[in-house]
Give the backbone structure.
Amino acid sequence: MLARSEDKLRQLSRNIKGEHEWMLVDVRDSDQVQRAFQSILHKHGQCDVLVNNAGYGQFERLEDASLDTIEDMMNVNYLGMVRCTKEVLPHMLQRGSGQIVNIASMAGKVGSAKSSGYSATKHAVLGFTNCLRQELAGAGITISAVNPGPIDTPFFDRADPSGQYVNNISWFMLKPEQVVEAIIRVILRKKAEVDLPFIAGAGSKIYQLFPRLADRLFGRIMNKK
């Protein structure tokens, strides 16, 4: 487990019964990422599965958003994933096996008001994932994307301090356990991509086919962030 919060890593570690390790890493720092993966590969000899999950969001109208925040979201959510992937990919190519699972978002498929910065990072994650899957065809490496809708986690403490958005969409928010189960299924079945929950996946298809209709249907809810 790699993360930049020691307190959260220690807390998570106490709740895990199986054998595991954790390291302090800020995915915005290329040197930290490089040292972490060098240490992992030196100690364990291989990396079978990489799950890129670092990310955060902040929901604001564009005119109110800080450019620094938008750049930082891109640095963490997208470039952090790229940094980790580049460190492990040569090893997987040499072995001819492995799987990289990128945790994207339904926000990477469906745009919504007040999330232009965050949604752009997740569109980037999905674009990167789809391109890399094609690049590595025949190399023995599986490239997967998991696209969850809203999840009931502290993510929204920062993304939506008012709580208005959470109140509006709480009826279809995912539990963290549901997302974990989906990730495990993707790994075991080597699936290319999964959307969840079902209603969000259906909504993304409506958006792709009928964007103007989708804007009218969903825009009012999304503007209440």
In short: The chain has two domains: 1-45, 48-222.
